[in-house]
Design brief:
single chain, 215 residues, alpha/beta, Rossmann fold, 6-stranded mixed sheet, 4-stranded antiparallel sheet, binds adenosine-5'-diphosphate, binds magnesium ion
């Protein structure tokens, strides 16, 4: 088990705000593809932010490899343990494709860009000259540039057309099963949820998990 959530509570500090997460516990393994689903406002992004070390739970803990992520510090966790893919790619718009990938870590950007199928001629182009689907592939390459074992993605196909979305899903699936990463994807897409090894549903602050067997 690479990541473990133990009895976490979370509420935003606004008046009358109720708990978004209520005594949530769950675990994640390497080599598996997880999806987090639930209605808008259910707390999916909140859970992902806590897993990413962007925020801390009010109580309970998050363990990476058995150690509380607050022990070594959230900066360390963000730098070494997890990488994040966003709906709007979050690439640096004045840099080239290659330069964006380099920001993610020390692995060869050329190798990573080949792996995510970005054509050679696009490597030295400004990132904004790539299509949306290509930009999301570059964001995934950036996420793979470090040795982080956990890849978190928040609605990574939300801005893409259906066919392009399918390609991104396949790439994330491949990242879990072929590269042995722990991939956790927040999604509205039934298609993504369907191919996951486990679906984590958030409702009223609680979670429910379902394993899926694929033949
Ligand atoms: N920064 C914030 N301040 C106050 N409330 C927030 C903030 N972000 C989210 N919320 C509230 O917390 C709940 C969960 O939000 P979120 O995790 O973004 O849901 P989801 O990603 O499932 O749509 C919602 O009720 C939302 O309005
Ligand atoms: Mg969200």
């Amino acid at each position: 088990m690479i990541l473990e959530v133990k009895n976490i509570d979370y509420a935003y500090k606004t008046k009358k705000s109720k708990k978004v997460l209520n005594q949530v516990s769950t675990q994640f393994e390497e080599g598996k593809f997880y999806t987090i689903v639930g209605a808008s406002g259910a707390g999916k992004t909140t859970l992902l932010s806590l897993l990413a070390g962007l925020d801390t739970p009010m109580c309970g803990s998050i363990l990476y490899n058995g150690e509380d992520i607050q022990k070594r510090g959230l900066n360390y966790h963000r730098k070494h343990n997890v990488s994040i893919v966003f709906q709007n790619y979050n690439l640096i718009d004045y840099l080239t494709t290659e330069e964006n990938v380099k920001l993610g870590g020390s692995k060869s950007p050329q190798k990573l860009l080949s792996e995510v199928n970005i054509p050679h001629e696009a490597w030295t182009r400004n990132i904004l000259q790539l299509s949306g689907g290509q930009q999301q592939r570059v964001a995934i390459a950036r996420a793979l540039a470090s040795d982080a074992k956990v890849l978190l993605a928040d609605e990574p196909t939300g801005n893409l057309d259906e066919n392009t979305a399918d390609e991104i899903i396949e790439l994330l699936w491949h990242t879990a099963h072929k590269l042995a990463k722990c991939v956790i994807v927040v999604t509205h897409s039934k298609k993504i949820a369907d191919i996951a090894d486990e679906v984590i549903q958030i409702k009223d602050g609680f979670i429910e998990r379902n394993s899926q067997i694929h033949n």
